[in-house]
Amino acid sequence: MKKYLSIAVCVVAAMSFGSCCSVNYPLYSSATPDMGSKVGEASSKTILGIFGKNGPKATLKDAAQNGGITKVNHVERTEKSILLGLVRKHTTRVYGD
To answer: Using CA atoms, how far apart are residues 21 and 74, in angstroms rounded to an integer?
Structure first.
């Protein structure tokens, strides 16, 4: 019985530590190849999908305000998941002028 319990604990630990992933994807890109001279970033973190730090502060509007951007040329979104998705970090990055 102890052998099976040890194996189960090892499997769960391996899944927890091996489940960290990061995904980057563009949300919007203008027709011009220029990314812009300014960059703004906003991020938020959630635990169990319920408890959050900074609330919903990873919005496009907040990222543009943080970078002083009035004309948006490109938007990227990054999602990072840790410990089987128990902790997630959302980041929105805006490029423009």
So the answer is: 23
pTM over 0.85: no
> d(Cα 96, Cα 40) in Å, to the nearest integer?
9
pLDDT in tens, the chain (97 residues): 777 778 877 776 666 555 566 666 666 666 666 778 899 999 888 887 676 666 556 788 889 999 999 998 888 888 888 777 778 888 889 999 8
Q: Which residues of 26-64 are buried (b: 16+ CB within 10 A; e: fewer)?
A: eeeeeeeeeebebbbebbbbbeeeeebeeeebbebebbb
Q: Which of 28, 39, 36 is nearest to 64 (CA)?
A: 39
